[in-house]
Write a structure and sequence with these properties.
Order of helices and strands: EHHEEHEEEEHEHHHEEEHEH
Largest sheet: 10 strands, antiparallel
Shape: elongated
Oligomer: single chain
Structural class: alpha+beta
Radius of gyration: 21 Å
Distance between the termini: 26 Å
Low-confidence stretches: 1-6, 278-283
Strand content: 25-35%
Strand order of the largest sheet: 1-7-6-5-4-9-10-11-12-8
Number of helices: 9
């Protein structure tokens, strides 16, 4: 069904994406935040008029009296994004400000990317990805760094309770208590100093993965990356929502380099090839 789709992207505004998702019958589109559902009936009607004109001008839809026909390929792509088996969200915050956001949606038949435009804050680029290797490549490129970080094996397991305590202590700028906590985790002063520097920069890359099984149950995995002076720090938690229900549950904090992260992402995406039936992992 999807064989003819190439990799040409559709440029869409947030509102256009939300309304197109609504035309497929979907109630939500993961990764696209919008206040459309909060609008009053008259406001919603006016917004739809604006969106319809824009979509008509782009030739993404056709209108015949009260009948609306969406470009076939675009409809199939939007529908895939609304019903993914795997949803992956990458975000890059720089000093607390959103620098980049990329969404990936994987179904049995296709993978689709919705990437936030760097030029226009309100625009997104929707692109079909022709194979699972392309998913891996497009995610991996988000984690390539200009700096070559040291490759050392520093890994620490921390309880949820201690992790939140560490977060609050760093925010209070109480360095003595921070060093004390980190030493309890097993970090030397030099290692702890680099971690604190990375944490205080408030610049973080996040990769969240959500898998939906045949019964509709969702399993989530999240990792965070912080860049210090000498090390890149990864905080990883399997199903963070479940972990926080028990303060004694553990999360992992450790140092990684760029190649290790890229390899992890490639392995992770290749594991989804059994879902994306028409794809094979490619080097």
């Amino acid at each position: 069904m999807f064989g003819r789709i190439g990799e040409a992207g559709y440029v869409l505004s947030t509102r256009e994406l939300i309304f197109l998702a609504g035309l497929t019958g979907a109630k939500e589109l993961h990764g696209i935040e919008d206040n459309t559902y909060e609008l009053e009936k008259e406001e919603l009607k006016n917004e739809w008029k604006k969106v319809k004109i824009n979509l008509l001008n782009k030739r993404y839809i056709q209108c015949d009296k009260d009948k609306i026909t969406v470009d076939r390929e675009l409809f199939l792509l939007i529908d895939a994004c609304c019903n993914p088996k795997v949803y992956i969200k990458y975000t890059n915050l720089d000093m607390g400000n959103l620098k980049h956001l990329r969404n990936m949606y994987i179904t049995e038949k296709i993978a689709v990317e919705i990437d936030k435009s760097r030029q226009s804050h309100n625009n997104w680029i929707l692109t079909p990805l022709v194979n699972i290797g392309k998913v891996a490549n497009n995610l991996s490129e988000c984690f390539i760094t200009k700096k070559e970080y040291e490759s050392v094996d520093n890994y620490f397991e921390v309880s949820i309770r201690d992790f939140f305590q560490l977060d609050q202590t760093i925010k209070k700028n109480n360095k003595e208590d921070v060093y004390k906590l980190l030493s309890q985790f097993g970090m030397s002063n030099d290692i702890a100093k680099d971690y604190i520097k990375a944490y205080e920069k408030n610049s973080v890359k996040t990769l969240m993965t959500m898998i939906t099984d045949s019964e509709g149950k969702k399993d989530m995995q999240t990792l965070w990356l912080l860049e210090g002076k000498n090390y890149m720090w990864k905080t990883e938690a399997l199903n963070f929502d479940l972990l926080i229900k028990n303060e004694e549950n553990k999360i992992k904090i450790g140092t990684v380099n760029c190649q290790q992260i890229v390899s992890e992402i490639e392995d992770m995406v290749c594991n989804y090839s059994n879902i994306f039936l028409s794809a094979m992992c490619q080097e």
